[in-house]
Design brief:
The structure holds two protein chains of two kinds. By secondary structure, chain A is α/β, with parallel strands linked by helices. Chain A has a single domain (5-168), classed as Thiamin diphosphate (ThDP)-binding fold, Pyr/PP domains (Rossmann fold, 3-Layer(aba) Sandwich), CATH 3.40.50. Chain A has eight helices and six strands. Chain A has helices at 5-18, 33-40, 53-65, 76-81, 83-93, 112-128, 143-154, 164-168, and strands at residues 21-26, 46-49, 69-75, 98-102, 132-135, 158-162. Chain A has a six-stranded parallel beta sheet, with helices on both faces. In chain A, helix 2 (33-40) links the parallel strand 1 (21-26) and strand 2 (46-49). Chain A is globular and about 40 Å long. By secondary structure, chain B is an alpha/beta fold. In chain B, 41% of the residues lie in helices and 18% in strands. Chain B has helices spanning 3-13, 26-32, 50-60, 72-76, 80-88, 119-126, 137-149, 176-189; strands at 19-22, 40-42, 66-71, 93-99, 102-103, 109-110, 131-134, 154-159. In chain B, helix 7 (137-149) links the parallel strand 7 (131-134) and strand 8. In chain B, helix 1 crosses helix 2 (26-32) and helix 1 runs parallel beside helix 7. Chain B is globular and about 45 Å long. The chains are: A alpha/beta, B alpha/beta. Chain A binds chain B through residues 22-23, 25, 46, 48-52, 54-68, 70, 84-85, 87-89, 92-95, 155, and chain B through 21, 41, 44-46, 48-61, 78, 80-81, 83-84, 87-88, 176-177, 180, 183-184, 187-188.
């Protein structure tokens, strides 16, 4: 993966640092590779690799419980898998954290197997009453800090869905 | 061994500064009955998430030792978390898994493959640096002490009797979110 990926990852991690994120949990997607590589080299953020996305939600909730700001980085399939965890931490525990999820399965994608995710992600988040924002371009990355503040004020996870262009710019699809 | 005995043995060996995270179900009820003075967060639902929550708390508070009291039904729901925790390897996290081979709160139904699951084998295979398995009070006494003397991550699987654990008569005076706020206030005040 090349293109603007590393530069965009740099800007996203800078936004996370501006938002005082200290703990990150991730599970990969090919479009997330530059971001996860950059996160793993960031000394100010403790990066944890998880085996399932809902584990990442649990790690972030636990970090929030302990007074630290945390982010889950995953594909939007991870949001679907984590529906119970996200709803539980939002409405039962009321613990805030940020989720950065790559938005697979929309106009930028080139794979049949991704498309169902694009169809159902936003309706599922709406049903779960989890706030979300879609970032189309890296120029809008400042919403990360706003979303972290929103999560803290609302006492629940907030999702930022990142389009391919926001992550990779003009890199060829994969 | 009754699960109340296992809970008592743990309480008697904890350091006063330890923080407890408790998985849902009969393990939580056994710990609540101890009236232990330690700050305790009852992880409640979503089921299967207590170990990840404890990991996040351990990462956020490296100045405190976090002791997770977990049930086998909760852990079996999400065995992958054993790999996640081993990978993160927080030096301040300890785990005790209460094994009764049943979904006690749900009515005592058996776990899949009940009685033939080795959680210490699963943990060791996931890369945990230290594990122990207790079948009786003497072993639990020794292994809980060893767990708490470790300088690193560790897990004890402790076998307890199958005994009914009915729902409490009412919901209690505080919601999960209110309990969360109280727990956070206490942890913050103890800094």
């Amino acid at each position: 993966m090349s293109g603007d990926g590393p530069a965009n990852a740099e800007r996203i991690v800078a936004a996370l640092l501006d938002a005082r994120i200290e703990i990150a949990a991730s599970l990969p997607d090919s479009w997330l590779s530059p971001l996860i590589e950059r996160l793993s080299g960031e000394p100010k953020i403790r990066h944890i690799r998880v085996t399932r996305e809902d584990d990442g939600a649990g790690v972030c909730a636990g970090a929030s419980l302990g007074g630290k700001r945390a982010v889950l980085v995953c594909q939007n399939a991870g949001l679907l898998l984590s529906a119970n965890a996200l709803a539980g931490y939002a409405h039962h525990h009321q613990l805030p954290f940020l989720v950065l999820a790559v938005y697979r399965g929309s106009y930028e994608d080139r794979f049949y197997y991704q498309m169902y995710k694009g169809l159902v992600t936003e309706p599922v988040l709406e049903a779960l009453r989890i706030p979300f924002h879609v970032v189309d371009r890296i120029e809008d990355v400042a919403i990360v800090e706003d979303a972290v503040r929103e999560a803290s004020l609302a006492r629940r996870p907030v999702v930022v869905l990142l389009r391919r262009a926001a992550l990779l710019g003009d890199a060829k699809a994969s | 061994m009754r699960r109340s005995v296992a809970a008592r043995l743990m309480r008697e060996r904890l350091d006063p500064a330890d923080v407890v995270v408790c998985g849902l179900g009969s393990t939580a009820r056994a710990w609540r009955e101890q009236n232990a003075p330690h700050p305790t967060y009852y992880a409640s639902d979503p089921m299967g998430m207590a170990p990840a929550l404890a990991l996040g708390l351990a990462l956020a508070r490296p100045d405190r030792r976090i002791v997770l009291l977990e049930g086998d039904g909760d852990l079996a729901m999400n065995l992958g978390v054993l790999i996640t925790i081993a990978g993160a390897a927080p030096a301040n996290l300890r785990v005790a898994v209460f094994i009764n081979d049943r979904y006690e709160t749900g009515g005592g139904q058996p776990l899949p493959n009940a009685g033939r699951i080795s959680y210490v084998t699963l943990a060791a295979g996931a890369g945990w640096p230290w594990t122990g398995e207790a079948h009786d009070e003497a072993q639990a006494t020794r292994l809980f002490a060893a767990l708490l003397e470790l300088p690193q991550l560790g897990l004890v699987a402790v076998h307890v009797d199958a005994e009914e654990s009915p729902y409490p008569p009412g919901p209690g005076p505080t919601s999960q979110a209110e309990d969360r706020a109280l727990f956070q206030r206490r942890l913050s005040d103890e800094r």
